[in-house]
Amino acid sequence: MLTPGGSILYVGTPHCAETLYLPPGSADAWLTGYRRLSIPLLGADGGSAWPERFALAEIEALRSRVGPLRFARQMLLQSVAEAAARLDPALLVRYAEEPDYREAGGRAHLSLLGRRLLSGGGFWDPAYGRPGSGDASVLAATYADGEGNHFLHRLAWLTHDPDSPIDPATQQCKAVAALARELLLPVVRVETNGLGRFLPALLRREMARAGAPCAVLEHNSHRGKSERILAALEPALAARRLHAHEAVFRTPFPAEMAAWRPEARGARDDALDALAGCLLAEPVRLPLVPAAPRVAGWRAGYSGVPN
Questions:
Q1: Over the stretch 113-150, which tens digit does the pLDDT of each residue have?
Q2: Which alpha helices (H) appear in 166-299, and where do they start and end?
């Protein structure tokens, strides 16, 4: 119970556009009449408001990790609307090379653009619609190096032949297994929400038949599709760490990416969702920092025994 003359204090940061912490002068402000104290992490001069906790280098690393939309909301206290988010295909770093697989000293190495790849995999968002109708069945295949770079190497729109004696699910599983073997994918994750519930077992059978040493994992999404896409793609694009093979630019993906809006309903986003599944499945790696050179001190040769 609030006693007469008491005060109510609200503390928080804007996590979305429909926030309680809109400036009191805004048309949709709920806290109209309240005094507001706002201390964004970066001041008007570009300096840190809390240098003892957040150095400028740490702030830039945070901005790169979470992306400009979430950074503006949570660190700059700006209630940015979802409609302001854009996925610009021009921010994709284009490349044409293929991975280089080698074995040396009993160990396998996979590299791309001269960088050693540490992980990779595919994400399949399946659909059973007839070719040209309904949701698209899309497989995205990516690799990642140790410096936080992601490489979208293939996007495959999977279809089936309605006149084939092989059922549509098996036809698509055969195509996924063939790509997994070709691209040396260590794992393929299958979206099991809805239609894909029985596909992992079928895909494991086709992987074995194709001779692809690729694990099959079931994936069940609990976040909204727009939230997944933004969380995965926006930080990677803003940091220019999302590379795409030139073959990707000959698919519907760039147009789908440019036309996508978080608030849109019914827009094509199947490829974006498959790519987001790949990126969100990657572990967060700390950057590799070279060890400081070991320099012998002036007492390096001293044994502690006087002459």
A1: 999 999 999 999 888 755 555 568 999 999 999 888 99
A2: 168-182, 199-210, 225-238, 253-259, 270-281
Share of the chain above pLDDT 90, in %: 35
Report pLDDT digits (tens) over 11-42. Answer: 876 666 666 556 556 666 667 777 778 888 88
Per-residue tokens: 278: 């790949």
Q: Decide: helix, strand or coil at residue 213.
A: coil
What number of other Cβ atoms are within 10 A of residue 163's Cβ?
Answer: 5
Contact 271, 138 (CB under 8 A): yes
Tokens 């990516």 sit on residue: 142
In the 3-class helix/strand/coil scheme, how is 95-128 assigned residue by residue?
ECCCCEEEEECCEEEEEECCEEEEEEEEEEECCC
Residue type at position 161: D
Q: Does domain 89-281 have CATH number 3.30.420.320?
A: yes
Q: Which two tokens stand for residue 275?
A: 């790519």
pLDDT given at position 101: 92
Q: What are the helix and strand counts (H, E) for the chain? A: 7, 9
pTM, two decimal places: 0.71
Paired residues of 191 in beta bridges? 219
Q: What are the domain boundaries of the chain? A: 10-80, 89-281
Are 167 and 199 in contact by the 8 Å Cβ rule? The answer is: no
Backbone angles phi and psi of 188, in degrees to 5: -130, 125
CA–CA separation, 244 and 112 (whole Å): 12
Structure letter (DSSP) for residue 182: H
Which of 13-17, 108-112, 226-230, 235-239 has the lowest average pLDDT? 13-17
